[in-house]
Amino acid sequence: MSNEINLPIYMDYASTTPVDPRVAKKISDHLTLDGNFGNPASRSHKFGWKAEEAVEEARSHVANLVNCDPREIVWTSGATEADNLAIKGIANFYQMNGKHIITSKIEHKAVLDPCRQLERDGFEVTYLEPNEGGLITPEAVLNAIREDTILISIMHINNELGTINDLGGIGKIARENGIFFHVDAAQSTGKIAIDLSSLPVDLMSFSAHKTYGPKGIGALFVRRKPRVRIEAQIHGGGHERGMRSGTLPTHQIVGMGEAFRIAKEEMDNDKIKIQSLHDKFYDSISKIEEIYVNGDTDNKVNNILNISFAYVEGESLIMALKDIAVSSGSACTSASLEPSYVLRALGRKDELASSSIRFSFGRFTTEEDVDYTLTLINHAVDRLRELSPLWEMYLDGIDLDTVDWQTH
Amino acid sequence: MAYSKKVVDKFENTINEPAKYNVGRFDPKEMNVGTGMVGAPACGDVMKLQIKCESKGNTHIIKDVKFKTYGCGSAIASSSELVEMLIGKTLEEAKEIKNIDIVEALELPPIKIHCSVLAEDSIKQAIEDYEQKQ
Prior knowledge:
By secondary structure, chain A is of the alpha/beta class.
């Protein structure tokens, strides 16, 4: 094997990305005495003015990537806080209009958990089932609408599958019914173009660290026309036009701004590169017998590939692939023993859900990384299948569904 | 999941040298072979254990063992550990092996104790199958 390969190989870009060196430079310019360290809220001296200028420039970069007005961008500590602010913010502000919310079973926990919390506060939530390709269809949303529905929250790109929901279709239905539409777009930036000037979306959550920016910073888009109002969830100082108080972390904000500026500039190149890595990976891995790609391949991004390896258990596969950093299901849930709730929602059998691995590539993935990963996967799957009584039964032509298993 | 070095080593050795670590199968119809299969795919682990015995005096000795396991790293390590404990034992001695022996040998984390229970069940079932044939 090549000496140039650094092990382990990082194949988990959907969980987080390394900070781009250009972003790191920008961040370090905004920390120390000789840099732009001031408090952007300080009105009485140049340190504050300069910091505010940097924050506003970053805000423009974020707005520019998704084609909205910079005044529609509210800084948060990340996509989780943005999701919380959007969902609880709308629910609290508009509860007199109704107490019903529509979301889906395949949302990130940052959407599901605020919805659960609102249920405890007296709201009713409908959790839509995805179709077998992992998509939430506009029809499914339409059928769930009630007179008292005030909010629809559906993600753009699913973090486990890479599937892309039809925001235009869902948003149109939301508009026609006078319901606010929130979108978790943590996985989207830099992967596919987003045009908020034409998309019928009222609120959209963003994260910096999925797009080569730092952790701990994100943003919520809150539409001005037609105007969307939200109740603040964090109080103290009235920053961000009262929607999110707290001293702005200039270094993180400029990091996110730079990351999104680069994303806009390099998205086309990144996409070409990712497409070629994806094709190389997929062409080879699809030659392995009895594997299943999870998620509708006609409606997904190329940087995420979620694959079930039948007759091999997922955790043992990850252990056998110790030189590759991947995750089984969402990184947030892989500490538990449950198969992925997203794959289960697709109707995958438990054993296929628990044999799934998410591979995700990014800007710094090389062809050599992909080649080496493929070699290791082929080896690990062969060995674990040799060890698998289920594989033996499959080769013997036994239908596993007819076996009288002793569940425990 | 933070496994002990023992689990990791056992798992890696087993998948890298399957023949040396008794991965394989005997013909289950042979009279001197006992087969046990426990667990379920939906629960995430299935262990299949086969013993090949020889009668000696008024008892039977386990001469050889083969196994296959579908499951997490510690399920695979647990069956592999059990297999090593079995070879050369009489059936009476084999029945004395308890899951706690495997837990201690591999330093299994509490959340993975069920893997050792499954391993204990697999040997019980294999012995039962063998004894029924005699």
